[in-house]
Structure formats: C-alpha cells, structure tokens
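User: Could you write out the 3D structure of this protein bound to zinc ion? I've included everything you need below.
Assistant: Certainly. Input first, then the structure.
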Amino acid sequence: MQEKTVILSQNNSARTHKQRLRWLLAVSSVPLFGIVAAFGIVPKELPLNLPTIEITEDVVLPAALSSVNNPADNTISIWHVDQVYRDDTLSSLLDRINIRNPEALTFLRQSPDARALSTQLRAGRTILSKTTSEGELLELQFQNDINHALVVKKSSDGYQAQEMPLILESRILVKSAEIQSSLFAATDAAGIPDQIAIQLANIFSSDIDFNLDLRKGDRFTVVYEASFSNGELINTGRVLGTEFINQGKTRSAILYHDADGRENYYTPDGKSLQKAFLRSPLEFSRISSGFTLARFHPVLQTWRAHKGVDYAAPTGTRVRAVADATVTFAGGRGGYGNVVVLQHAGGISTVYGHLSRFAPGVRKGYKVRQGEVVGFVGMTGLATGPHLHYEFRVHDEHRDPLKVVLPTSVPLPTESLAEFSKQAEPLAAQLALLRGSNLASLE
Ligand SMILES: [Zn+2]
C-alpha cells in the first residue's frame, strides 16, 4: 500500500494546506507519472485560501477494466511507487518492486537501452512499476536524471526502453513529526523522504548524536524543497530550515547562501552549526538506526569500565573521522583489533577499534577531513559482536566522548547578519507556525 501525505505551505502564509491520498491498489493502464492526476484526486495546485483539507480515498478499479491493455487477461496490474535507497543494488531494487519474470529481469539488467537503470541508481530517485499480480513487468518508469525518465514497456515484441522528458514543479514542503522509536520511524510516519532524514542528522551532527541522543517525545519540523510531476514526488532537494527539540532542548538551523555562493546552516542568531568536531563517529543511516532500534540504547558498556564508548552497529557500517586529522596509526593492535588512531588539532586524538576493514588510503600520515570515512564497523580483536569502540583523548588522557565539551563555532561576520536575517525570517516564521501546532491534527 502506498500512502502519500503532501503538506503545502507558502512563505508568510498563516495557513497550512494538507492533502492526503491513500491508495491500496491503483489498477489502471494510465501512463505513469500521470497516475495520480489521471484519477483526479490531486489537483495540480491547491487553492490557497482553504483551511486544511483532507481527502483519504482508496482506489480500486474493477479488474475487468485493467485487462483492456493487459496482455495477461484475468490478472490485475499493480502500480508500485518506490525510491532508490542508498545501499540499493539493481537486484535489491527490482526485487523490492516485485518484478519476477526472467524476461524482464534480463532486459533490465542487460539491454543497452536500459543501461540508465544500472548507471543512474542514485538514492532518492523515484521508480514506478506496473506489474501483474504474478510479478510480470508491464511498464516501468525510472527517473534517470533531473529532467528525464527511462520508460520501459512490454509489447508483443518483448520489452522496449526509451527516454522521456519530465515536467517538474518545485514546491516547498513543511512537515512535523514526533519521535516514538527512531528518526526513520518518525519520518516514515510523516511521509518525509530518507534524504531529508539524513540531511537532518548531518545538519545537527555537531550537537546531536542521532544514534544515542534521541528520545521518545523529541519532535522536529522541517522545511524542504521538493519537485513533483503530476502530483508524484520526483525529487527532494535541500532542507531550507529546521527545528529539532531533543530532550527538551530546541535547536534551529537555517540554510544561508552567502555572497560567495557558499551554503551553510546557521542558528537563527547567526552562529554556524558546523563545528570542529562531530558528536558521533558513526554515520547515521537507516541501517545503523534499524540496528539500534532493537536495543534502544546501544551503549554496551559504560565509559568507566573501559575508557571508551561502544556503539553497536552492523558490520560494514561506515565510521567517520569526527574532525580533520592526521592518521597516526592504522593496523591491528591486540584487543582493539583493526584500529585507526587520529591526531586532531589542540592535542586531541580519537581511536576507532574493532574495524572489519579500513577505508582505502587510510594509513599512517594520511590526512582526513571531518566526516571522511576511515573504516567500517566489525568485530576484530576482543569483541563479542559487531560494534565500534570509540575513544576520545586530550593530551593522551581519556575523556568521556559523550560528556566532553567541544570547541564552539565561529559566528557569521557582522556585515552578513542583515542579509542573513532577510533570508532567515520567512523560514523562522514557518518553523514557528508549526511549533505550537498539534501534531495529532497533522496526522
Ligand atoms: Zn569498547
């Protein structure tokens, strides 16, 4: 079942417009990307002065109708709308969208005309497929770049692929959600795309450890760009502004383009959110988040016991440098197993143990940038399960990385503040608008 929630909002508008659509089986032979509009459920533009509107409708067309253009009579065809995830392979994607017939699989994997599917498999791209209930592919559309879709159709001569232009409309969406179990569970429930969840984790990565710090009841609002074609979400863009209430503490971030064309996130009073150190050495992802969901608090051992923090995470999860550094050690060392030691400015060093392997090029003397992957979670050395052992040292003295006070960041120069405020105000107003709203009414 596909469920879509679209919340439209305009800058400086005091109203939020909401349209909700649910379909169980959309059975048709309507051209893809036009499916929603073709049923007349989602108007291209919502009237701006209406109060919240909500339409929930299950669309099930009679099976007889579907067999009109359907080579396999007496079967129903099913539209499946999905997106590419970061770790998807062509096989995992085709499996998830339920394509089962060998002829289609061979065509999609091997035909030069369908090559874009393999070469343009980027996270966040939309894929729409129409299959029979037996998994025979009838039609597929894949957004292969910002303006084009690869369209594959079954005909009497087998499958054919062709590139078609996409007509996109840009919109700015505002959504709110409350954390019940994990960030992804919350973003899924609110219909917020994965790339936006990942951007949120990155924006606040110097302040919030998304693998350890989130609590039930935390909530957030996010304003972001999206492009649609006939009411179907095709692309998500940047987060323009966000507010995150974590353990009772409110943090806001506003995207600011400076005069030199650089883009960075700042607090509403103009302090950069990008700091010298990241809160967590583990890259936040659906995989690491899903893993920690099983044990909501993933710290296996306390700081006092062994002068480090252990992050439970699946083997292969990316481990990143928390700050710019020089590698002083990368190799096997006793109970640590495969370990990377980084030397940062100010006499600070960090240690990453039990790695399954190192990132390419990571060896003594190699310079890494903040956020660069240095290795991958494993269970080498003395480890009973896959986890990252992480240490933070100041002049070789161990400090608790969860408590250490990290250097703060530089504010915007005074001469930029006026321009920043001009960009920030409408976004801050959007965020304020949803701050007081009842989340339940939005769901
Ligand atoms: Zn440990």
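The chain has eleven helices and 22 strands.
User: Perfect, thank you.
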